[in-house]
Amino acid sequence: MSKEKARLGRGLDAIFGENVNSVLEDIQRGNSDLYVSAKTDIPLNEIRMNPYQPRQHFDEGKIEELAQSIREHGVFTPVLVRQGKHGYELIAGERRVRASRLAGRETIPAIIMTFNDDEMLEISLIENIQREDLNIIEEATAYSKMVQRFGYTQEDLAKRVGKSREHISNTLRLLRLPQVVQQMVSDNKLQMGHVRPLITLNDDKEIIEAAKKAVNLGLSVRAVEKMVKKPEDKEPKKEVSTDFSYARKLLESKVQSKVSIDDSKITIAYHGIADLNRILEALDVLEKED
Predict the structure, then answer these.
(1) Residue 288 domain-assigned?
(2) pLDDT digit string (tens) for 119-148?
């Protein structure tokens, strides 16, 4: 194991022994100095948004409400940042940063942390997942990044984020959907229950058409499941006729192997070349050597 991986493992174990969300809140409230290097006010124009932020959609109405509160009372809870090559990189507190800028502030209280790239990525993803701030597509993307970056199995990931392995598996499968359908989910036009059955369809065009139909008609989850359900065999299998049954028994007695007969073909089962040669001999069709 590399020194970097060893450091990562020890650091994250120290943090993730508890709920990430509560640990970060303790740090921001001044109840913990874990990974803290400094506490100060920093210029908002020197903060770069978290490149690992999984959340892509922010409620502008709630940002405006927070901005109004900040205009009146200021920012009570510091944001978490780390020192970057040019200014600071945000770890936690993007809503506060956005609202502070909207409120016209020039600085914001901040706690400067000492996380490396891997720690920053995992903390950003897990914090958002545990807060349940993400829509299901953002959550699936976050899981995918963790699997790719850290090589987690679904079982590892389930333990890391406090979800069931089945939930992880079902959520990751949503990334197989065409991008346009994923966007419908992100826009809350469809729920996870609507799109889960769509994954069983083989053709992207068919998936998109079914998704659009579900949105346009306001279909329920049950209606979507029924719409995409694969039809059963058009006709139940017919019982083998008496004549076929008699012929099958004669052949099986002759070749000592399983035989099936339908309206147009006879199938004889065999296992390996030696068994095939045995059947050919029994049928007296194998050419004999001179």
Answers:
(1) no
(2) 887 787 777 777 666 788 888 988 888 888
Domain containing residue 94: CATH number? 3.90.1530.10
Q: Count the domains in the chain.
A: 4
Rounded Cα distance between 15 and 180, Å, is 37
Q: Note down the domain range covering 67.
A: 3-131
Asked whether residue 151 falls in the same domain as residue 220, the answer is no
Alpha carbon distance 40, 25 (integer Å): 17
In this structure, what token pair is assigned to residue 97? 């940063």
Question: Would you put residue 184 in left (φ > 0), alpha (ψ -120 to 50) or beta?
Answer: alpha
Do both 127 and 7 map to the same domain? yes
Catalytic residues: 94
Residues in the chain, overall count: 290
Q: Contact 143/168 with Cβ under 8 angstroms?
A: yes
Each residue of 59-104: pLDDT tens digit? 788 899 999 999 999 998 898 898 888 899 998 888 899 999 999 9
Q: Cα separation of 274 and 69, whole Å?
A: 84
**Tens digit of each residue's pLDDT (9 = 90 or more) over 197-225:** 898 888 899 999 999 999 999 999 899 98
